[in-house]
Amino acid sequence: MITRRQLIKTAGAAAIGSVGFGSYALAESFSTTVTRYRLSPPGWPTGLALKLVVLTDLHACRPWMDVERIEGIVAQVNAMKPDCVLLLGDFVAGHRLSRYGAPVPHREWAGALGALKAPLGVHAVLGNHDWWEDAQVQEHRGGHTPAGIAIQNAGITLHENTCVRLAKNGQPFWLAGLGDQWAFWRKNSRGYDGIDDLPGTLAQVTDDAPLLLMVHEPDIFPKVPERVALTVAGHTHGGQVRLFGYAPVVPSKFGARYVYGHVVEDGRNLIVSGGLGCSGLPVRLGSPPEIVEIALSA
Fold it and tell me: Per CATH, which fold does 33-296 belong to?
């Protein structure tokens, strides 16, 4: 639900766009929908029913995604009573978005996320903007990002090419988190280098319990083996602006192939969330912010 304070912000911010179109797009940027999926992946064990909630691409920035709004999203997620909450990165605002507002201090947005509750834990991976914000990390092409430190200080499990074995009602499953694929700008050339290690991550799985994979960018999906029951991704914002279902700009080398929603290829399942925040301009149109709920069962 949009608060009075957010409505005031929306009205004031409408000046950056046209009075009609811009106001509508900005108002949509403050809405939050819940998108629900029900899946029965191949070979999923009978009796293992999981409810996952996915949050991604917050891009914390005043006034678009301030602490008050994040706290409201957290309360909404907790009311859904998930078994596990998955955070898929891009917690911070990019430099371009910061031109239109003010970054939220890391301790504030991370502290708000620290109130998320789930019996099997809250798990996170970092996104490209979380890596790009720190000049020293980029210069040294490694290190601890401010966003990653804040996430861990908030009591959230941060994954970077790591796996954890969890269980519900005595039935085990694996949760893996891949390192970011666009972590570093390439020097003297276009493109990005990642810290992702898919083979090394999957090699940590030691039995045949079902495996879930968290990634930020969906571009890794063609390399994900059938062993993975479900891959969840963010990054694309669902195109952020979609006109009659078409997204003119998609940050993926595959174009619109993985822009949004449930994708099945060769029996493998991918769900790409449209995310919650904005990148570049503080506008969403035809791709409203969303919380994703995934129910898995046989």
Answer: Purple Acid Phosphatase; chain A, domain 2 (3.60.21)
